[in-house]
Request: fold
Amino acid sequence: MAELWLDPARARRGGADLTRAGEAVTGRHAQAGAAIATASARRPWGRDDIGAAFEQQYRGYEEMVLRIWAGVGRRLADLGVDVVRSVEANQQTDAVSAARFDRVSDPRPRH
Reply:
């Protein structure tokens, strides 16, 4: 059986850090990502044949990068919440298991 060593306070701090990192990524996406989308909507590369060809190739990549950027922020924040939830679940499981073990090892009869 594998043993899990867990420093609950440190793991909670790590989870909170992940959540804050996700929020920061999401905030940066909201600012810089919006600026990128606004700037590219003006099609600074022009509307001639070369600009149209660039637009056709560029737009899909821009949308994909902005979508992934937003997703990374959300996933980091979600992961932070999950880490904290996992710590709490592990501690609760340990407490319940310890109580059961204490009852099993207690030589006194239960009433």
